[in-house]
Amino acid sequence: MTLDGLTLHYIVEELKSIVIGCKVDKVHQPQPDTIVLSLRAPGKNPKLLISAGAFDSRMHMTEQKHVNPQTPPMFCMFLRKHLTGAKITNITQTGLERIVSITLEAKDELGHPRPMTMVAELMGKYSNVILIDNGIIMDSLRHVTRTLSRVRCVLPSLPYEDPQSTKLNPLTVSRSTLLEMLQKKGDAKIKTYLSAFLQGISGLTAAEILYRYMPEGYEPHPREPEKLADVIIRFFNEEAKPAMYLRSGVPFFYAPKPYLSIAADETASFDSVNALTDAYYHRLRELEALGRKRDTLHRVVSKQLDKLVHTRQKQQTTMEQAKKAEDYKTRGDLITANIYRITRGQKTLVAQDYITGDTVVIELDSRLSPAANAQHQYKRYNKLRQSLDITASRMAQTSSDIAFLESVQVSIDASETHDELAEIEFELSKAGFMPKKYAAVRTTQTPSQPHKFVSSDGMTILAGKNNRQNDLLTMKTAAPDDIWLHTKDIPGAHVIITNIKVQIPDTTLFEAATIAATLSKAKGGAKVSVDYAPRKNVRKPNGAKPGMVVYDGYNTILATPDKALFEKLLVSKNEQ
User: Best exposed site among 44, 269, 444, 463 by fewest CB in 10 Å?
Assistant: First the structure.
């Protein structure tokens, strides 16, 4: 979502007590559209982030670490020159518009006070950061010429002009003025109209106001201006309660006060709007980076899988050809058995197959003797037999590699953090599918933790997120009498019902099987066969790849992948 003027209002109000009186210690520009001011004051060292991004323009305090380029951009160097050591004396917002002015006091070459103003215009694709001295633009993050905008130019040495706005500030507008504006709505759509004449109201905020006005759905009302004006006034006077809204653990909306119109799986409360905004965008950046890394690993694995599948097809063709080896042996035997009937220069031999009784015609090389013709058939037989053995061995290895990579694909989808994806890189590197540098990085690091669930009967269920976890969970963590589950002949997670002290209830067994089905390649299917056995019946062959095991003495249960049940039984990291 885009930062709106109302949220920015609460951010600025909190910033006043934090940054006023601080001096600018350092200036960084980690991204082309992002400025980070490291501030200092007795007992505190806050960091102020200003983003002029088209889709994430914002301003707030930040606790996050940012990677800076080796060579600072020109605008960053410019700000360092003029702002380092400057003291922040005030910070204000223009009404409820997304424009914030930071007043600073620096010293000129002679040590005299030099007031400056940094203006952050946080208006989506029109966002900018501008440094002003006595109303004159010193420089800006983005230069705006007449060819880019017919409204105003933003260039060094030009006077700074405030973006024009005719909207009303809902925090200061009188009820009578509000009534007058609502009565002028005419045929305009009410949601669009609210955003059009009131500052700080995004489309979602307008929808929230209308929801509070008519939760059952908006429709024109006889006394609409009076009632809607009261709803608007109450909404803007409501106490701030910052909250982040999430679906399936992914944040999609944040607000400085409760939004009753937002449907979310869960909400997370924060002590301040600055902390809320910082956490929201940091989590989004994490998810974006995680998605990019996941996509990269998927491409690596898919490329390797395509190669292996093509190789196996060629090996299957070779196997089919090699199966004809017995035909050459039979021909050699027939030539040997009928050698007395063959003369040098003869081109064919008509003989009776002593196994089938059929009459066969064998092509002969007229340049060779009868004995040499027999040896020629035996040589072809021996070559194909050797080829059959070698190809069968290589085909088994290829099939094993394909099974491993298919299990890695499941692990990639199940990974939730960068560390878990790094473990998959480690697996792929150790198996020879990625450069060795990834194996060196992970050898000394502690493995991440598996999923933990509590069944409806109160029993603990563990499930690996990747093959490294699967090995540790099955071969190290699980007790001999714990129950091990895995989808039948389908790549998926190892699932363990652990700490067994009584006979496992059917409900727990079914839920564990459902978890195994959900964490498998068949997660989008219907009924999935899941094998289960005591952990002591599971073994890892010598030289087997991570996650690869064999087992016996098992039973099979049918289960349907169920993401809702998975989420219901999953124990959150905070509860573990």
Answer: 444
Smallest CA-to-CA distance from 453 within 466, 441, 465, 437 is with 465
CA distance 501 to 483: 12
Low-confidence ranges of the chain (pLDDT < 50): 441-444
Is residue 293 within 8 Å of residue 420, measured between CB atoms?
A: no
pLDDT of residue 443: 45
Q: Write the DSSP string, 205-223.
A: HHHHHHHHH-TT-----TT
Nearest CA to 499 out of 554, 455, 464 is that of 455
User: Could you tell me the CA-to-CA distances from 536 to 195, 366, 501, 545, 567 in Å, in that order?
Assistant: 66, 65, 16, 20, 29
Q: Show me where the domains of the chain are located.
A: 5-140, 175-274, 282-414, 449-569
Fold for domain 282-414? Answer: Helix Hairpins (1.10.287)
Q: What are phi and psi of 297, to 5 degrees?
A: -65, -40
Q: Please give the helix or strand (H or E) that residue 376 lies within, else none.
A: helix 370-414
- For the chain, the distance separating the N- and C-terminal CA atoms, rounded to the nearest angstrom, is 32
pTM: 0.74
Q: What is the crossing angle of helices 273-322 and 370-414, to 10°?
A: 170
Whole-angstrom distance, CA of residue 313 vs CA of residue 387: 16
- Of the candidates 498, 425, 514, the residue with the CA atom closest to the CA atom of residue 466: 425
Half-sphere exposure of 215 (CA within 13 A, CB side): 5
**Tokens linked to 185:** 């709505």
Residues 6+ apart with CB under 8 A from 302: 409
Cβ burial, residue 388 (10 Å; 0-12/13-18/19+): middle
∠ CA 572-275-239, nearest 5°, is: 100
Cα–Cα dist 405/281, whole Å: 33
Whether 153 contacts 144, CB under 8 Å: yes
* Tokens read off for 483: 């129950």
The counts of H helices and E strands in the chain are 14, 22
pLDDT at position 478: 93
Look at residue 312 in the predicted model and tell me its pLDDT. 92
Q: Is 559 helix (H, G, I), strand (E, B) or coil?
A: strand
Q: What's the Rg (C-alpha) of the chain?
A: 36
Residue 567's nearest CA partner among 534, 528, 519, 527 is 519
* Six-digit token string for 283: 């989590």
Residue 363 tokens, joined: 């092509």
- Close Cβ partners of 420 (under 8 Å, ≥ 6 residues apart): 448, 465, 466
Q: CB atoms < 10 A from the CB of 496, how many? A: 26
Give the full edge-to-edge strand order of the sheet including 483-487.
451-454, 460-463, 495-498, 483-487, 528-534, 555-559
Which residue matches tokens 């002029």?
52
The CATH class, in words, for 5-140 is mainly beta
DSSP, residue by residue, 432-443: TSS-THHHHHHT
Q: How many CA atoms are closer than 13 Å to the CA of 493, on its beta-carbon side?
A: 29
What does 441-462 look like in DSSP terms, one character per residue?
HHTTSPPPPPEEEE-TTS-EEE
